[in-house]
Recover the amino acids of this structure.
């Protein structure tokens, strides 16, 4: 029997059948290894803020402006640079505005085509011609390649390029060409995108963000607790479904479900109006929502209360079913004295702000009424049967996970659960103990079981784990001692609202602890960084996102409008290019209209977190290490051809 190496080389020879083919590929790979590494772009806690997300994606957190500056320096005015940047971000909309005032569009086309070609040449210079060719828009691929590729053999290059541009303008293809080359620049400025959790909830457009990500050229996603909540809802987990609807109601975003995903909320609305029609629902006021229609607002309040009560019932059922989770203290409805209007928590009695529970049976408080059960059954079928939602969740499963190790960076959304001494906390999951990386891995596997397991119990456990990840004190995506949803709605006492963070957050400046976490995930503490979000950095209070001398970067700065009063900014993003790591702090985004009409970009401040002594090459990256292994394999194949071990397939 042939040994494994010989069999492998024979399979490799199917791809590279001759000495020439193997040699050419070695030369190509070796050339790629010596190119500058591609730019990585990190975003987190986007929370449905589509317009701001889209703009930051278009401008590459300032990367487009930096490229314009590198190309034109002091040879172009700041006003013209700003105008060119806006054209690259929003080419179609910008040209529509220019046409209204520009008297000679042909001249305008000519000037801006030359500028765009110069920028595209610059951004393409760090890639192989093959990679650039794959990124070219289909309709103009040949022409753009001609314009951005140096023609050493031409004596009169200027005349050659002028003729191409003049022809584009003459045949009325300037505008679609400008759109195509602007999109190419956006595509080449960022090589890879990392989303470090929480695409969903609070903002109005998570479904639009998901559509955008699905068409993005290269992306990975580290799930946030809000993402896993939606995944659980899509899998049919009723606790997750109730939470998703409650949060949408709370932020005035029920149209995400109705219009974005086609989830029918009419039965719930009719039930809420019938049961809570005379209830002022004062404890269920909307948050961070700009609703001008008073009738719609009143309807939302009632839906908000109806689904909240259903949630507390359903969660009580999960807690009783999954005793392993140890969440008995979060089942609250049986602790209420419905006659007195009080609740007893941790041995102390509190007066309820809202005492109206018409659907709760005090003798069996977690039982859904017949109407509530019918509503939840319908909603479960709607979530599981929604093709668009399932498509988005399949994308999260394919491109995502609870963490990622990439180019010496450890990416996760929340925290690594620690004990009070800073050691990795041991956590029980269905009777077995896990900690650190093992905990992440087992929870990740159960999420996937919730969608794909054939065994009914395993599949149900997987669904319930998604709810666990959403709110459990030992969940690496939650990281607090409790989710005080009931207390925040029904109790005035602020001390009951407090959610204490996991000790992880007190050790972010402790180098020994951070080094231990990096080693746990297989990283060298001398080179590695942790990038995470989840807890907003309150910059207005002087808090810094850079922890432990730059080893930890907490980049949730408040993309969500609901957080911006707390943080004082509108989010952090991170850029990792061949020169090092740059942290970018963003001011609030006014609107897409202002960005186009007023050429008002997001004002950003950049902090250099680490600078490379030598420029980082592809060979220094994870992909580079894989390519080096491929080179070794091809060199072994080359030797096998030359010593007669493998015969060429001519």
């Amino acid at each position: 029997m042939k040994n494994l190496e010989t069999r492998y080389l024979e399979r490799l020879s199917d791809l590279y059948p001759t000495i020439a083919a193997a040699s050419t590929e070695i030369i190509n790979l070796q050339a790629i290894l010596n190119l500058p590494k591609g730019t990585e772009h990190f975003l987190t806690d986007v929370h449905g803020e589509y317009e701001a997300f889209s703009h930051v994606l278009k401008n590459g957190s300032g990367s487009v402006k930096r490229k314009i500056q590198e190309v034109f320096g002091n040879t172009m005015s700041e006003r013209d640079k700003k105008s060119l940047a806006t054209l690259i971000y929003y080419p179609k909309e910008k040209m529509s505005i220019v046409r209204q005032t520009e008297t000679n569009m042909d001249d305008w086309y000519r000037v801006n085509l030359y500028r765009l070609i110069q920028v595209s040449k610059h951004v393409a210079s760090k890639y192989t011609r093959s990679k650039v060719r794959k990124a070219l828009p289909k309709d103009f691929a040949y022409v753009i390649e001609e314009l951005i590729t140096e023609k050493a053999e031409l004596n009169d290059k200027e005349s050659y390029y002028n003729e191409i541009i003049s022809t584009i303008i003459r045949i009325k293809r300037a505008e679609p060409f400008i759109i195509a080359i602007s999109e190419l620049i956006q595509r080449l400025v960022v090589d890879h995108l990392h989303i470090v959790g929480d695409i969903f909830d609070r903002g109005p457009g998570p479904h639009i963000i998901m559509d955008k990500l699905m068409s993005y050229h290269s992306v990975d996603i580290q799930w946030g607790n809000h993402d896993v909540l939606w995944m659980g809802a899509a899998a049919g987990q009723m606790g997750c479904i109730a939470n998703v609807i409650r949060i949408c109601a709370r932020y005035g975003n029920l149209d995400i479900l109705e219009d974005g995903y086609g989830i029918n909320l009419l039965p719930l609305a009719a039930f809420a109006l019938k049961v809570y029609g005379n209830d002022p629902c004062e404890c269920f006021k909307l948050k961070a929502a700009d609703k001008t229609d008073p009738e719609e607002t009143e309807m939302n309040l009632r839906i908000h209360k109806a689904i909240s009560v259903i949630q507390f019932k359903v969660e009580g059922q999960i807690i009783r079913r999954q005793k392993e989770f140890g969440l008995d203290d979060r089942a609250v409805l049986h602790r209420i004295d419905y006659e007195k209007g009080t609740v007893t928590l941790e041995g102390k009695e509190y007066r309820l702000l809202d005492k109206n529970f018409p659907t709760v049976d005090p003798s069996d408080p977690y039982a859904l009424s017949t109407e509530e059960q019918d509503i939840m059954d319908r909603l479960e079928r709607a979530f599981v049967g929604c093709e668009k939602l399932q498509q988005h969740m399949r994308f999260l499963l394919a491109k995502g996970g609870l963490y990622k190790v990439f180019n010496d960076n450890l990416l996760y959304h929340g925290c690594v659960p620690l004990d009070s001494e800073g050691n990795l906390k041991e956590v029980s999951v269905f009777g077995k103990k896990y900690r650190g990386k093992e905990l992440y891995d087992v929870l990740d596997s159960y999420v996937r079981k919730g969608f794909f397991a054939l065994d009914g119990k395993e599949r149900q456990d997987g669904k319930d784990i998604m709810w666990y990840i959403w709110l459990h004190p030992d969940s690496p995506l939650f990281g607090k001692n409790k989710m005080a949803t009931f207390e925040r709605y029904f109790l005035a006492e602020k001390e009951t609202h407090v959610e204490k963070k996991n000790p992880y957050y007190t050790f972010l400046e402790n180098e020994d602890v951070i080094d231990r976490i990096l080693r746990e995930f297989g990283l060298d503490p001398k080179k590695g960084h942790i990038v995470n979000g989840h807890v907003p950095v309150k910059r207005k209070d002087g808090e810094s996102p850079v922890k432990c001398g730059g080893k930890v970067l907490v980049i949730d700065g408040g993309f969500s409008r609901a957080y911006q009063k707390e943080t004082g900014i509108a989010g952090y993003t991170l850029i990792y290019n061949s020169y090092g790591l740059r942290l970018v702090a963003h001011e609030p985004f006014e609107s897409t209209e202002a960005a186009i009409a007023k050429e008002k970009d997001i004002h950003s401040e950049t902090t250099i977190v680490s600078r490379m002594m030598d420029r980082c090459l592809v060979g220094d990256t994870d992909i580079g290490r894989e390519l080096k292994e491929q080179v070794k394999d091809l060199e072994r194949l080359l030797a096998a051809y030359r010593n007669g071990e493998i015969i060429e397939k001519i």
Observations:
- The mean pLDDT is 90.
